[in-house]
Amino acid sequence: MTANFVTALAVKSFDVPDKKRCPDKAEFDLVSVNDYSVARLILAPGWRWSECSKPTEKTQFCQHNHLGFCVSGVMEVETPEGVRSSIHANDTYAIPPGHNEWVVGSEPFVAVEFLGAASFGRPASRGQHAKI
User: Full-prediction pTM beyond 0.90?
Assistant: First the structure.
């Protein structure tokens, strides 16, 4: 088991991200603080992983691990086995690889994610995590 330690003070704003990616109907603002990557996801109404990300990810289902906090909006997540869950504002969530996900309703889904953030929106990342 690897231990993670924060060794220095670091503060960054999503107002000035280290990297910005804007794939179909999505915006990912990425910052690095020390050795950690954090992402703000803004997914537009109508965004669906299987339609917007699958063509560039080149996998049957999303292979990213997600650990995050929903700021606003609603996201529905479904596994290949048909297990479904909804994520709403003020929910924290953990989603393992192997799922489809989509925005529900007319409000964007806005979340902050702490696991695997640097790989979001990278073409053909196949869920492989990277530093920004």
Answer: no
